[in-house]
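Researcher: Hi, I'm a grad student and pretty new to this. My advisor asked me to get structures for two proteins we've been looking at. I'm not sure of the right format, so I'll just paste the first sequence and hope you can take it from there.
Model: That works fine. Here's the first sequence with its structure tokens right after it:
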Amino acid sequence: MEDVVNAIKNNRIEDLSKYFDNIVPVTINNNQTIYSRNQAEIVLKDFFERNIPKDFLILDNGSPNSGSKFIIGSLITPGGMKYNVYILMKQKGLDYYLQEIRLNKE
């Protein structure tokens, strides 16, 4: 999960995309669309180009069960815009893959 957090903090979506599953549900401002790995990377690069991270604060994280992990955070942009961020990772084999990401304006 540390790599996922660092990828967001440093606006390195190509690093984040390493953890994408084949299908990635992306929610931006309460509009959810299901994308392929490549499409999700393009959509998130566009979002983060328009909302460059100034800071990303982890508010909560955990493992509701042995096969999944989540992060709840607050993304702050240089203009003071804040987004609530929710990321769900699920285990497949030995690795964890991003199963869902939500970015909603506060």
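Researcher: Oh nice, that was easy. Here's the second one.
Model: And its structure:
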Amino acid sequence: MYDVAVVGGGSTGLGIALDAAMRGLKVVLIESHDFAKGTSSRSTKLVHGGVRYLGQGNVSLVREALHERRTLLQSAPHIAQPLDFVVPVYRWWEKPFYGMGLKLYDQLAGDAGLGKTELLGNAATLALIPGARTQGLRGAVRYWDGQFNDARLAIAIARTAAQHGALLVNYCRADALLYESGRIAGLECTDTRSGTAYRIRSKCVVNATGVWVDALREKDAEQESAAPFKPLVAPSQGVHLVVDRSFLQGDTALMVPKTSDGRVLFAVPWLGKVILGTTDTPRQDLPREPQAFQQEVDFILGEAANYLRRAPSRSDVRSVWVGLRPLVKHQDEQDTKTLSREHTVAVSRSGLVTVTGGKWTTYRVMAEDVLSACEQANLLKKLPACTTTQVRMVGAAQARDPAASLCLPPGLHSYGAEQALVQALPGADRWISPGLSEAMVRFAVRYEYALTVEDVLARRSRLLFLDAQEAARVAEPVAALIEQELGQDGGQADFLEVCAHFSHVP
């Protein structure tokens, strides 16, 4: 019998597992695919308070996120770090306007701030962003936020939760909810690789499946025979394009606070490349491998051309990925740009606890709120205080290494305090691709829950997100190493199909 059974291995579910385990609870987490396979590996890679939400007047959300930003950066300095951003201005009023807004951003952060907002002239702007468009430039505003390696942080959270006694299982699908006297008493699930079925008995079941929470909620509603089912989530997709570092140059991100349709656009240096994004397009369906729409790619490339000296084209895109966001639906709102990124925790009459919404930066406080809801609903006895504000993730070094910047191409430095452990494995001096050795593949399989080629190349090394064609090229040697380690097929054929999606620029 478990105290808490979590369904969903994204940032929220993993955060719940870690928090619960650190409070001494018996915890199991199941994920139908790989950890962070969905939204949690497809973010804009920013640890931020949300400048966009400040513009919407959501001060409480921004203040909370800014303080959580500091906690997250401190927990894993090898994969989460401060980053400066430049807002280039081309009209006379923009510098004082954005300057005031971003100074308010600093004030909301208080002692959790990462650096002071500055007003820059043209020379200082181009020194930080050499790739910025010079025609009509009137300087810039510089401010600070953070960036991270989202999927690798998710794996670090999973491993840290396991160190505290949690059981985490990927490729295990939740099929049904178990009930006793009308109350949820556990789960029926299936190991999707072996086909073996299991029953998990638990005092509390948490539905943390992100954009897919309504599927489990609907099953629970059928059991309750309650009023007509109302979905909680309005899905929205965000598209990101990856281009070479030469388009931006430097180690500073570029932020456009208001594009032609009112959205924010980023150009972020990340692992030796530049991420351009993101969009915010409503979707009615929930595909596991969502595709970018042509108009979204047109939008990103068109806006980038307004701010970069050299405009990227479709042929310059190395990889394109799409993340589905779980935006919380209120009343009859349809425009996902106006829906809340604040999270929602709901407990059904039968005791199913559902959490959705929010964003990566606030994953820790979301977990804390879920366990508080479990306690208030008498699903768990009085709990010890939350201690995750002080947690150090597996692999975290004592201090951030300036030579391990997330702007640099991936390499051994990405492993923080575990570099020696990686180097001790066979193949440490044999490179499959720049920044990916045979030893790193073995490490992913032995220590980081990787079971397939996609697990390794998408969410442990991130090569798929950086260069889809290169990821396809090295799939075969990675599959061979997985077979050596596990004695089973690593899903190379399936991975090549995923590579085709990431390579396709509509």
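Researcher: Is there anything I should tell my advisor about the second?
Model: You could mention this: The radius of gyration is 22 Å.
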